[in-house]
Amino acid sequence: MFTKIKNTVLNAVKQINDSYEFKPLLSEIEEAPVSPLGRFTFWIIVSLIIVTALWLFLGKVDIVVNARGIVIPDGESKIIQPLETGVVKQILVKEGDFVKKGQLLIKIDASTTDAQLKSVTKNLAQSRLEVKRLMANGTETNFSTEDSLPELDEEKEIQEKLYKENLTSLNNEIAAKNNQIKQLNMQISSTSALKRDYEFQLKNARERENKLSEVLDIIAYSQYQEAKDKTNSLQESVNKTGAEIKRLQAQIKEVQNEISKLKADFKVQNLTTLSETQKRINELEAGKEQIEFSSRNQMITAPCDGYIDKLKIHTIGGVVTPAQELIALTPAETPLIIKAKVLNHDIGFIKTGMPVSIKIDTYDFQKYGILHGTVKSISQNSIEDEKLGPVYEIYVLPQENTFIIDGKEQKISTGMTLNAEVEIGERRIIEFFIYPLIKYLDEGISVR
């Protein structure tokens, strides 16, 4: 079309006849041909109107809904809490930091647990020394403390002294009983000798009595009676010494039983004390493990690789309590998602799966471009926003999460703010001009 107009203008210029320029003014005006410039301008305007009309009728633009949003993890953050009450000694991270698994995040003052651990450890070592002493007593072996801790020197002396005193006391009692048995044996020996003497005399007395009984008719009866009385007296003495020997032997048996009882009682007492001490050791070991566990957990560490999403304590010297939330940690492997707030009057046009253009505030979209995503889900209920009023939350799944910054990939991270443009459809350009007219006309007709 423009080529045709150009040719028309050139032909018109070639056909210009300037003969009328030398005639009178009125004749010149009447006879002068129409300027081709006017015709050219007319066709230009007509062409522009046609092109504009076609553009207005055929041209379409995207309709977008703008929503402010933020990058969040697609999943629950890990909440880090202390197990014991304590005082914050040092905070080693800040929000947005990337941390490795096991990295120290917060130090809690461990002076209390350190004192408890020291006390329990000492009591445990003392109890173990006591167990060694009791076992040495029970087996009558030497009691050694050479492998004990140097700081237990006083306790070692006490246990060694108890060991010696207990054994000395037992041995003294047994020695006394043995001396008693020795004395009884000596009495038995002397009594046995006396009995043998009585038995020898009794034998002789019986022989004399028998001889006298044979010549009783030629001797005085009193002489025979005297011999018989002596025999009876000696027999009584033999019987008495025999009974005395049996009594002494029974007494020895009783003393021996007392010695056995002393040893048995000593062992029973040892075993009872050993059992109680071993029970105390078990309790102390359990308490030590608990204190060590608490001490380890006073060093707040990262359970996994990730980003510090929220740091909820900022005061050195502040007191923390069990189950208090200290840190929200977003695991590194957790995918990111975008949460955006859509105004109440726009939410009806948004559907899941709609494309979204994501403009991160940190990176100028005119320089670094935009990210693309799709609407993943839409909240069913509105929430009240202090500035925007009732809004609905939508969740956008980004198709990529990196920008090229100075030739290097830079990932978006949790907490970055952005503008999400949801493409809800297309509209002809002319509708932008006609719709306000129709709206105002409709409102004008309906108003009284």
From TrEMBL:
Keywords in alphabetical order: Cell inner membrane, Cell membrane, Coiled coil, Membrane, Transmembrane, Transmembrane helix, Transport
Membrane topology: Single-pass membrane protein
Gene3D superfamilies, alphabetized: 2.40.30.170, 2.40.50.100
Residues in AprE-like long alpha-helical hairpin domain copies: 114-285
Subcellular location: Cell inner membrane
GO terms under cellular component: plasma membrane
Name of the featured protein: HlyD family type I secretion periplasmic adaptor subunit
SUPFAM superfamilies: HlyD-like secretion proteins
Top-rank lineage group of the source organism: Bacteria
Lineage: Bacteria, Candidatus Scatenecus
Coiled-coil blocks: 117-272
